[in-house]
Amino acid sequence: MAVNPTTATMAKYFLWFSDVHYDPYYSTTDAYKAGYNNKAVCNSTSIPPLGSVGCDSPKALVDSVLAYATKIDASPSFIIVTGDLIRHGVDMLYASSTHEGSDNRVGDEVEIAAHAEYHSDAMNEAGKIIDDLVTIFTDAFPGVEVIISIGNNDVVPDYYLQLQGEMSNSTGLMTPEDSGMLGIIYNALSGNGEEELTNFNQVGAQRRGRNLLSVGDSATFLKGGYYSRVLPDGLTILSINTVLYSSIFGPEPLNADDPGEQFTWMRNMLMNIRERGNSQAMIIGHIPPSVGSFRHSQLWKEKYINVYYDIIKEFDDVIVGQLYGHLHTDEFRVGTGTTGIPSSLSTPLLLGGSLTPLHGNNPSFRKVFYDGGTADEKQYKLLDYESHRLSISESNTGGWSQLYTFSEAYGTFTKDINTEGLSANVFRSLLQSMEGKGGNTSPALNAFLSFKDSGSAGYVDSSHDCDADCQAEWLCTLSGTTTTKQYNKCLQQESGSSRYIIGIAGAAMFAAAFLFIMVARVKKSRTRDQYESTSSVDGAVEVEGTVEIEDNEML
User: Fold this and answer.
1) Contact present, 136 and 209 (Cβ < 8 Å)
2) What is the pLDDT of residue 545?
3) What is the pTM of this model?
């Protein structure tokens, strides 16, 4: 029997935000500006109040999205925010030299920034911005559970997090004051008082408004930045810290096989859920265990990718969703049997778009419908989602509106969507529909490209002129490749004999040409924004009037 997700008897919903990148310094001299975007102006009082391309999210944008979300419905079952709560480059507010606190740090410069005199001030500033943002959310949705995951920009420096628990000889529980950056974030997310403090690394630091974390969360959060939340309807949310698994995470943890003992915790939690038999789990995090879609770089270290999917595969029967962010674009990943993500999994990776318009996308969020099961049988299912966006323009004259509903936009390209909801099978059938015929871009891929930047016209490939190379790159990205090697192998298979004709006499020449093409593809990056450029900028390469960011998915 087909189920209409929005009218199903047991249908509930939650709101999903990602990559907010709240910048309270927007329109001031301390505003963050993307280094590769030489046209962005973020430090002027005359810039659009709701945000501008090349800049992170002003308070007015955060207020705007939450006001609109409350008009949709002020009582969601819960709210999730999949990482990167705060602006980029917090330490740039304090750095004394250009590279010491910039997006272009390499090698020892990260360690220098992590041990600079201003480091404690920068960490404390990050805590204050998190505190401010959480207060805005809880004021807009009083009484609604807000569950967050840590992103790479929520720690200072970016991607750098010392696990103080591994360095301590104490056998007792960690406290916020001796937990470094995690203690600062914990204090920003917890506390019972109304007093506003400026030092989030002190004992008893308190946050205005409602608690997001409790004393019961301290054991896991202070150890590794992860925690769980059991909702009133029985669904369990596992919020994991994916920064620990990033390909560029530092410093090297002492327990390199299981940083922060997070994998051990995941197994134990999922085993307990299975044994209880009256709950299921949804996993939320920031950096997805896959390849990126800008430079197709590997986002997690391979050993952690393998352990993660071993766990997901083992407990597939109790996992109802895997929700991530980081890429700022509306995407998905699903296993097809020949790639890193196991094809046996019943849930795909869903990747949410960002609120910040930094890289040219429209600000967006999702309203996700799910089946809460019955009182006797707690079998949860993600049914459908709506994507809502704000059209960014020079004047910010546009308002928030619904961009699309998954079932309506993709229903003709997928099978069993009304009965299976947002299952891996549905996304596999969607992926198959994206394969073009006769060199033409398929309607399904065209639809995906029109939505991935939340309807923005600021991307080069939003014109949907997706040639054979473009189609192969997207198919290999979405089909669940998790390592660079897998992605390159997929590209080779997608190329096929029809695009690279081998002659007996020219076999050797073909091999050399093919190798050159593959290397070029690996280096190729889809340009972020169509900015006219007369000179190169830091961290960017000028190509035919556009600016390409050399970011290696460091979003």
Assistant:
1) no
2) 31
3) 0.87
